[in-house]
Write a structure and sequence with these properties.
The structure is a homodimer. Chain A has three domains: about 5-50, no CATH class; about 60-165 and about 295-325, Rossmann fold; about 165-295 and about 330-340, Response regulator (Rossmann fold), CATH 3.40.50.2300. Chain A has helices spanning about 5-15, 15-25, 30-45, 50-60, 75-90, 105-115, 125-130, 135-145, 165-180, 195-210, 230-240, 250-265, 295-315, 340-345; strands at about 65-70, 95-100, 120-125, 150, 160-165, 185-190, 220-225, 245-250, 275, 290-295, 320-325, 330. Chain A has a six-stranded parallel β-sheet, sandwiched between helices. Chain A has a six-stranded mixed β-sheet with strand order 7-6-8-9-10-12, sandwiched between helices. Chain A is built from 14 helices and twelve strands. Chain A is of the alpha/beta class and about 350 residues long. Chains A and B meet through α4, α5, β2, α6 and α12 of A and α4, α5, β2, α6 and α12 of B. Chain A binds a DNA duplex (16 and 16 nucleotides) through α2 and α4. Chains A, B: One of its GO terms (molecular function) is DNA-binding transcription factor activity. Chains A, B: Keywords: DNA-binding, Transcription, Transcription regulation. Chains A, B: One of its GO terms (biological process) is riboflavin biosynthetic process. Chains A, B: This is Transcriptional regulator, LacI family. Chains A, B: It comes from Flagellimonas flava.
Chain lengths: ~350, ~350
Amino acid sequence: MKKITLKDIADHFGVSISTVSKAINDSHEISRDVKLKIRQYAKAHHYRPNRIALSLLKKSTNTIGVIVPNILNYFFTQVFYGIEKTANSRGYTVISCVSDESFIKEQQTMKLLSAGTVDGIIMSLAEQTQAKGDLQHILDVMENQIPMVMFDRVTDKVECDKIVVDDFEAGYKTTKYLLQTGCKKIAIVSSIFNSSVGKLRVEGYREALQEMGLDYDDKMVVKVGGADDLEILISLLLDSIAVDAIIALDEMTAVDTLNILKMKGIDVPDQISIVGFTNGRLSKYVSPALTMVSQHGKYIGELAANILMDRLAYEGDMPFTTKLVKTSLIERDSTRKVDKNHRAYQ
Amino acid sequence: MKKITLKDIADHFGVSISTVSKAINDSHEISRDVKLKIRQYAKAHHYRPNRIALSLLKKSTNTIGVIVPNILNYFFTQVFYGIEKTANSRGYTVISCVSDESFIKEQQTMKLLSAGTVDGIIMSLAEQTQAKGDLQHILDVMENQIPMVMFDRVTDKVECDKIVVDDFEAGYKTTKYLLQTGCKKIAIVSSIFNSSVGKLRVEGYREALQEMGLDYDDKMVVKVGGADDLEILISLLLDSIAVDAIIALDEMTAVDTLNILKMKGIDVPDQISIVGFTNGRLSKYVSPALTMVSQHGKYIGELAANILMDRLAYEGDMPFTTKLVKTSLIERDSTRKVDKNHRAYQ
DNA sequence: ATGAAAGCGCTAACAA
DNA sequence: TTGTTAGCGCTTTCAT
């Protein structure tokens, strides 16, 4: 059985296409019996109005496009999950694309999506794009009047709705927490030093140190690139400075760091505390279970989808908003307990 | 700037729409200079042909729909990643949907996708659908001439291309391996006893036992539902039988089981070996690192996408195929080393 | 070399 | 109550 259209039904009953259309849309203009037999026939033959034709006519696709940098990253998976669920519940379909942290792929994808395929876009910038700073492809989309929500990795150069994790506060809060547990020499291991997110966390860290009258030392911020050997970098760090805490800016690095320290016979958290970013699936299963910063990925996804769909539904203009989502520190066993006396001074 | 169409360009130059269309598509019918100025103008104004209009005309959307039961499950994330990458490289867009293991949601999603939105579908059945056994919605899609590839959780009731993990062999191989390491009392902990996948693994397990002349005991197969407390179920198991190996049918359960055994002061692997299914991100980070069965998710995704797109590109009919993808056992530290003498007998 | 017209599947204003 | 027509944006014959 081929796909059935209004025309097929019209021909079958010898009526006009518009009669069939009206009958199926339960118009009052159509007589009881005609309506009945047409609807019955349509149901029997699994008639479904062609969404493409509808989209062309209505100039709206009921579809939103999502571009995430890396779907294998649990944070983005969670965001995507939140988006999909929310969009779905409001009758939208989701086209999902992965930029794979590549500028070119992001650019191509934006072009594709802005060619009438989606009503709006939710995205987080690829690392390469952030490093490069070329955002023309995104500005083009905005000029095309396609509403967009950016989350997590955003940029000031584009005016649109944004949802950002309060990464500055997260860096600040985490550092403060470690200081409260009595740590003094806090290092950072970052695999995302090119992204806004990574930079903000480091700034928050810096602020917390400064507030306590501690010096910021560039050597304490270890940058790990794809090809680098984390073990060597950490060894170098530990050899030159008596570190007593490490903040890892992503989950994998946190776990890797933990394992490296364990291999070196260093006790966690007695000798060195570890806090990791992005509370995913790994952290609670390693031992000691890692204290982590949760970014509430699913919530961010829901929020992004709702903001976008609200804008799509709203006639007239809405000002752009930027929502700041706070992180939560999930205390587990890779950090010492907070020193009560010390805390009293805060 | 609003979205620009062929008509806008035609009006601007006082030519016909078809001239513009031809110019943009670099037709030889159009004169050098007209072509040049039109193309230039189009580029300057970011003209992009409307994909929806194209789809309607060509009766093909260059889009494939993917339905996975649970995107938070790393296996499915991997498959999705493979699909997205492959589809993209061949010029296809991916609409991704999550059934959330729900029959209703799967049904709705199928309807949506089959309304002309996609050229083909890749899917894995929701657990509820497998339990219920009602596949009408899927048969409808096939009747609508929409090519489909099912992977992992498939069904005999639908004729289409399929990719299945050789779960029988995986269960068999895993059991055999444990026997070779000297284990005799092997239990299974399953959270997916309703799915074809779960059943096949248990059958493979059974076969391996039988081959060695060992009895299959129903009590050795522990079924964990969502509300059940794994710890209690494992305690009950261990109290009644002197188990020396446990096969966990998903990664989370494997890790949970490991932690429960450790808490009970049971040594892994000396007292009890553990093998888990689906090699994800957790397994290698826990200690002892878990021996796991890898299902090659990304590869399955690539394969599914290629099979589907090959079929879409092919004129004339192709017979349906079912590919059986073998699993790999990744030996780590939660199992004993294979007993060489024992192996000699195999 | 350029344009007119038909048509993909559908809805909606307007006629009958 | 039913039908005719136009049009969403595009390509593709078939004139001109």
